[in-house]
Automatic annotation (TrEMBL):
<dbReference type="InterPro" id="IPR053159">
    <property type="entry name" value="Hybrid_Histidine_Kinase"/>
</dbReference>
<feature type="domain" description="Orc1-like AAA ATPase">
    <location>
        <begin position="277"/>
        <end position="480"/>
    </location>
</feature>
<dbReference type="Pfam" id="PF13191">
    <property type="entry name" value="AAA_16"/>
</dbReference>
<dbReference type="InterPro" id="IPR027417">
    <property type="entry name" value="P-loop_NTPase"/>
</dbReference>
<protein>
    <submittedName>
        <fullName>AAA ATPase</fullName>
    </submittedName>
</protein>
<dbReference type="InterPro" id="IPR041664">
    <property type="entry name" value="AAA_16"/>
</dbReference>
<feature type="region of interest" description="Disordered">
    <location>
        <begin position="160"/>
        <end position="190"/>
    </location>
</feature>
<feature type="compositionally biased region" description="Acidic residues">
    <location>
        <begin position="167"/>
        <end position="177"/>
    </location>
</feature>
<feature type="region of interest" description="Disordered">
    <location>
        <begin position="114"/>
        <end position="136"/>
    </location>
</feature>
<feature type="compositionally biased region" description="Polar residues">
    <location>
        <begin position="114"/>
        <end position="131"/>
    </location>
</feature>
Amino acid sequence: MATTITLHQWLAFLILREKRKQEHHGDTNTNFVHKKKAAQLEYIQTAVSVALLLVQSLIVSTPSLSSQQITIDNVTVAIDDKGDAKLLLLLLNLEENPDDEDLQRIIESVTQLEFTPSTKNDSSTHANGEQQESDDDLLREVGTVLHQLFCRGIKPPIVSTNVSSPDEGDSDDDLDSEQPGAEKGRTKHSLRVAQKMLRKASISSLDEYVLSYGVPRNLCRLIIDLIWCEGGNEETKFRSIEEVAEELIQIISKPNLFLYESEATGSTGQLNFGSTLYGRRNEATSFLRAATLVSLDMMETHSKQLVLVEGLSGAGKSHFVASLIRSSSEFGWIYIHAKFDPQSQPLSVVTSAFNIFFMNILANRSEQEYVARVISSLQRNLSSSAIVSLCCLLPSVRNLFPSILRRVVSDEDLSSQNGVVVEDEFASGSQMSRIRLHFIFRKLISALCSVERPLALFFDDLQWADDRCMELLSALMERDHLQELDDNDGTNCLFIGSFRSNETNDNLLSHFDKFEQSTSVDVTKIELGGLAKVESNNMVSEVLRLPARLTSPLNELVQRKTTGNPFHIIHFMQSLVKDSILNYSLSDKRWVWDIEAVKSTSIDKTVLELLARKLSQLPGNIVDGLKVLSCLGPKVDDTIMKYLYTSPESRNEFIACLDLAVGENILEKSGDSAYSFVHDMLKQSAYAVMSEEEKGEKHFWIGMHLIANASADTDEFNAIIFSIVDQINAANTYGVTEEASHMNFAELNLKAGKTSIDVSDFQSALSYMKAGVSLLNGWQDGEYYDMSLQLYETAALVSYLNTDIGLMQQYLEILFENAKCFEDRLHGYLVMIQSLLSNGKHVEAMKKILFILQELGESISINATPKEVYIELMSTKALLDTISPADVINGKRMADKGLRTVKLSVEHGFCSDSAVGLQIYGFGVLNIQNDVEECLKWNHTALSLVKSLGAKQMIPRVTTNVNILAYWKEPLQAKIESLKENHHELLMVGDLEILPLNAIHCCRQSLLCGRNLQTAQKECAALLHEMHQLRQMNALIGMISNHLSILKLIGSNYVSEEPLFRLLGNSEINSLDELLQFCKSNRLVGPTQQCYFDRLMLAFWSKNYEEAAQYAEKYSECHQTRRFPDLFQTFYQGITAFRLVRLEDDKSREWADVGKNALSKYETWVNYSDWNWENKMLLLEAESHACIGELEIAKSKFQASIGSAQKHRFVHEEGLASELFGMFYDENGNKEEAMQQYSHARSCYQKWGAFALADRLNTAS
């Protein structure tokens, strides 16, 4: 319930509260002054809020009001008395002397102000509108009311404000007529001066009067400009009541800037631009929309969110992102900022950003629970070797995994004691290394982010990133389909990239195009142009702590000269301060400026010129410090400074210079001793002021100090190896190095290059190798022969890894020409072979391999006959029969690895390559002799061997073959998880040769083991898309065929095929028939066989037995080696044959023989695993007996097959046996029993998820 009183009455309550709060109760003078100021401030805060309500009420009432009606007594205040009788009595003046609590309630319960003017004495306005009022009259009276409000009810001490401005008052003719006897020019001048002095004196008097009531200067200026609105400056005068409301809103919204006055404000003569984000409302909305999707996990499609921010240098891209993420920190956001720099290796920028993040998060005790969760996730999803690799990339995480690192070191020590040679990864493929790096980072991202802790990963200044970093960004945003199944796929990460819109290149733009076309990435594009006038005025207004109305004329010039570029605005205004055009007035306690001087000030042609001029005005010692800093990376801390300035005095002097630069807003400081330039353009400017010779000398000085003061071959030296080499190479570019030291510098480049290879940074490695070779100045013999050999073979390798085949060939030619022996050329040959293979030149690669083997003393025929293969196999078997698996695992080790296998291993010792030979032998005895036991024995021995050797790269590869062969003995369902786990292990080591085989087998086994088809479909789709991302096209063909088989069994519409076929990137393939034809025409034997198998399977389950028989035969025709689907092809073909015995009388005997052959094989195979093969053998037996009329035996076999399938969890084959049993009853006239079996089969198919088969039975019944 509201009670209304006049504003004059309410003001009396407000004055009373202030008076009571200022009462002296024995306080000290200091406390009393403080109380008085606090009471005044509270009064003003309340008054300004009511002033806004008053003005807003006036906006509504203005059309019906005259200036004479705008008085404090004509304003009513609505008070929410909440039905309180005591409060109501106070408001109605029926009770005096309210207590403090009631007084506070009255003051704080204002709900509305309203003008209720009386009509008497209103002579200014008439119904016929004869007398017109100006807006100035209304504004002047508003000023008067506000004066009373802020000055405790007192009216302004001015009788008349009608003093014309000499600039905007009477015309020249009017002035002359007022002084008839005066000289015209002199009269006008005298009047102008007199009027100006009168107005200035009046304003000054009013200003001092208002200030005496404790009114802040911005409110004081507002009141005066309203009262003196007729003679005000045209550019800053109020023109409407709405503008008054806008200014009050600005003051209220940011009281720290516009209401509260600080003695220190501006007293230093420095502008403080702070960290506020100005304007960018629409851009911020787009950014925050993407961030919301990430933080709330609203992305049902598991798409990653990428925000690309573009703009010219100085547009505020970094500040824009940092401000918005900082504003979201209360929602649990974590932030990693990788800022690329033209002087830093791009990948090291990324790893450094993650490293700094972990250093900070580990130092924060409140984050212990979060850190524990990250550790748990990494240990769960990364192998020990992958964690070791992660620790090499990010040294700050080493302390998180002490047990793993201790165990790995222990294993390596143990291996070295046993004479094991560490596996040589010299020529590991670039794609393999990249996949491993990408996999580790993807798991790291997944571990870091969650719904509760979303991650913002900001790649800043992408125009300086290289291909490797862009590929890493792409890999991080690719859908991890397998991870999605566990609901932990890193979609709670917001990926952000910024770049200069005028410094892009075609390569960068092509990456952006791929992001936009990707189905796994939602791209939000944001372009930051110059600030609009309103936005730049807000910036200028807040920096100067003056209302936007007053700064508008200044901003007009600033905006025009800087085109609204935030960075340019900052430095232009700082230059105005430096040139004393913009000053802080201690007397007026506000910033003032000479508008004419601003107009005549020209901004430099480029901001770099402006910054160069700014730097030239700094003391020399500061400039010298900035020059040193500009030669280093984006951020410099004590890690580097302690080597450059070894004495405490010199280091403190350097830090003091940097601190002075911080005060000049050139540098920013984080922590105790980390410095970076506020903007990369400042760094560019500091670097640009040096001559070419000075740059070289500065780089050389830095590099040599780092070398001299960091102990070689220590962890500390290795930690700064890139900084050392980058400085030396930069100095060499400018021709400033000592020739006598070039060999040492070449060796340092070799070390930096090898370190870069270890972290898969191949582009950096290539730049180091080029520099090393250049410093070498041609091949060197004698004491530098070994270094020459290593430089050229490593240079050839990284050229290949960067797909620069021409450069690789140049390095190899020099290597082959100068190497002293064949062994010294061997690494070069390995690089050449890899290059040939990766370019599809398999014949040339094979010739080179045979040449190498011949040089090593091994003569191998590429066209061996089956008989020769058999003889070699038997010879090998005879040799292996003389040893046991234990002899292999515990036997001597081969000291000098070559391309030798089993025989040489037995003679000279075993190595990791021996495992490959053992597995090849195992597959040989399986294919040629059908000896399953011998095959399994030596495959398991191979796995034990690589584990005992600690050959981490080989373990997943050998495990794949062991898992693939496990179907002979181990339950099919049990190996699915092993295959999926090994898939991750293969990704961790980047083995792209075996990874597709593991993926294909995982999909095939998921389908054939009776796993729920919806689950199998999701898992296979995930693997399929992963193979597409890795561009494994042969694997993709077979997996698409397998996936479509699953969809057909589920009953999905065939429209689902279209997006799958699009993955092939071949517009001519749009159906399974076209896919099969493509495989045949391109002689893709493996994919062709897989397509035949899937057509066989679909025909079989659909009971199209004639078609099934045809595809079974075609499958057999392209058979090469024993495969897992072979056993099912035999089963399907056997059942098909027995069914066709009943249908084709003329071929019944042939079909019977085919069926009996299948049954015979299963009678053998069941001995290896009754779990996997018993139900199938029993079903073949049932069909066999049914064909020859042994009905009772057939019946018992059908029942036994159903029971065995149920017992061993093959629900699909339980349904198959029931359906065939139903057909058996049907054929023998027992419809009732047949329907029961059909019903059971339908139930099994539904459990399997094969709704198409269940629907077919519904139709049939």
